[in-house]
Amino acid sequence: DPAKRPVQATQFPEGAGPGLRWHPSGNSIACIVNGAVAVTSVKPGPGFGKSVFLTPQDGAQRTALVWSPDGSLLAYNKSVPTTDDNGNPIHAYDGSDFRQIFLVEFPDADNDGVPDTI
Questions:
Q1: pLDDT digits (tens, 9 = 90+) for 17-59
Q2: Residues near 41 by Cβ (< 8 Å), separated by ≥ 6?
Q3: What whole-number distance in Å separates Cα of residue 1 and Cα of residue 27?
Q4: Which pTM was predicted?
């Protein structure tokens, strides 16, 4: 049945990373692309498959993507230089930077679960 065939939602040259997450509305999907957080509309209509980036495409290792319960924010992990209370650099046992939690707002003024720029 042609109506039941899978439909491709993204067209990223670099591919969409693992760990994609549905927006609570079901109208968008967030994923990591080239280290950046991207959101793609999956709402049927002219915006289907259109994507926006919410963070720079800088190749940073963002991981563990998750939506807030109301869909207004996305949280993710990213390794960054960390210091102790005295301002001295501290590192993980293997010498790497520690992963910290970052938040980014989801631009959705009309609350339809699709980024405003789509």
A1: 888 999 999 999 999 999 999 999 999 999 999 999 999 998 8
A2: 27, 28, 47, 48, 49, 50, 51, 114, 115, 118
A3: 24
A4: 0.89
